[in-house]
Each structure stands twice: as structure tokens, then as C-alpha cells.
Amino acid sequence: MADRKVGIYSMYHDITVHTYGLADARTVRLAHMFTHLLDSDKTGLRPKEEVVKADRRQFGAAVPDCMKKDVDPDMEQFGQKIRLRRRKELGSCILCQLMDAGKEEKEQLLIKYNQHKDKLSERDEDVIGPWDDANRRAASNAPGAEVLKSDMAIVRAHVDRALEAWRKVSWNDFAKSPTKSLGKRSKGGGTTKKSRQETVDEIAAQFHEAPAGISIVTSANEVRRWKVGYAMKQNPKFAFAVAFWDVCGIKAETKGRSTATAAIASLSNIPPSVLKVLQPAEDP
Q1: How far is CA 263 from CA 121, 129, 275, in A?
Q2: 193 is a domain residue
Q3: Which residue ranges does the record annotate as region Disordered (predicted)?
Q4: pLDDT tens-digit map of 152-201
Q5: Would residue 107 count as lying in a domain?
């Protein structure tokens, strides 16, 4: 009783609508078949096997592109399904026209996006700010500039070591296998396997270690901000991967810690003039 063939006849109906039109006798018949099968749990009606086979031979074709419910390719490209030709007297299919218009719009938007993409920077100036500010102070002749330069050099070398470890990892391998072996041998002679996240966590732990040799005049918080800023300047993806919360924290501190930025908060306030317009008029 479970094999009602509802989905199959729904597909056949879509194919005939596109190929022969809604008013065609074949389309009307398949519509009736579909509605009968849809209610077949109550009526107990089932299509005869010879009818199903005949319909499969006649309508078992590829679903028209404009009627696909997903982006998976049809099997006709592998020689398993044919594509029925639409009757010329029906003219162009409106769904096909809409699909073509959508594809054209998509292409135009992608072109515009690619034109703007080159102008965009992944490096967040707010996050890089503490590092750039330290560079400006170190370049001055102010007292303590030499100490600042020394501390920054230590931070730079520390981040560079973590970044080098990041660059040595073949990240593309993890797309194929989340537990791709990194080639380390265990005591038993086998290979230990690490997931992508475990690999990121190891590099992040190295990144978050306190650099040795920092002077007492530079606070741990300042070192943390320098590390994140320099990492963002070198490789934004690396910075987000190993110091996501620090990146967000520095950004929040710059914009003011709140549930929303001032620009967004201002949009939630409705001006009195707008409220007056929206207020329903009083009955005379």
C-alpha cells in the first residue's frame, strides 16, 4: 500500500506541462492520475503495473531545467534519460524565460561583486589599530621608544612562528578527510590522525602563549592586542582562526561595548514625525 507512485506521476505531469501544454489530453490524464494516487490511501486505488510501465516509457524523461527542485544534474547527460522537446506551437515557456532572466541577473550581480571585491580589504583597521599605533610610537624619539621596539620585535617573531606553522599545514586535505593524518607516528607504529579543529587548536595554543622577554613596562593586555593586530595584518584568516574572540573583543572595544552599534540603534528609534503620520486618524 505504501508504493503509491505519487512523486513519479507528479514528475510526469511537470514534464508534460512543459512539453505538451496544460490543455493537452496527456497532461490532463496525468493530472487525474496524480490526484487519484494522492488520495489512494483512502480509496485503495493503485495504478496497474502495465499502465505504469507504459507511462514510464512515454514520459520517463528528464525534468525541464525550469522545473527542477534542486541543482543536481539530470541523468540524461549520462545517457540514462532523454529530454522531450517542447511543442513549437506553445511558444517559449514563461518559466524558462524567468530562469534565463534570473541567470542573467545573477551574472550581472557577480560581475558587479567582482568589481567591488578588489576594492575591499579583509584587514580590519580597528583590529590592526593597536599594532599600528605602537609602530607610530616606536618610530618616535620619545622616551621608552627603544624598549617598545624591542617588545614589538619579540611579539612579531612570536606571531610569525605561529603563522609559519599555519602555512605549513595542507588545509585542502581536510576538505577531503576531516581526520587527515599529519604523518606523525604513534608508539604502536601507526599514524595518529588529527581533525582540522585539533590542528587549529594546537596552532592557537602556540599563538596564545606569552612571548618570553617582554619588558615589565608592556602589559599583558597590550601584548595580546599587538599579537592580534599583527596577525590580522599578516593574514586575516589566520587571525580569525586562532584568535576569534580576541578579534571580536578588540572590535567591540573600539566601537563601544553594547548589544548594537550606534548606527543600528538609531534605526530602532522612530522619529515623532513618522509616528504622527502612522497614527490612525480620529473619527469625526
Answers
A1: 21, 21, 20
A2: no
A3: 177-197
A4: 999 999 999 999 998 888 766 665 444 444 444 445 544 456 777 888 88
A5: no
* pTM of this prediction exceeds 0.85: no
By the 8 A CB rule, do 175 and 190 touch? Answer: no
- Residue 82: all three cell numbers together: 532523454
Domain extent for 11: 6-95
| Number of domains present in the structure of the chain | 2
Instruction: Mark whether 135 and 43 lie in a shared domain.
Output: no
Q: What is the pLDDT of residue 72?
A: 53
pLDDT of residue 92: 87
Question: Which residue, among 84, 89, 209, has the nearest Cα to 155 in the 3D structure?
Answer: 209
Q: Residue 278 falls within a domain, yes or no? A: no
pLDDT digits (tens, 9 = 90+) for 40-77: 888 888 888 899 999 988 888 888 888 876 655 554 44
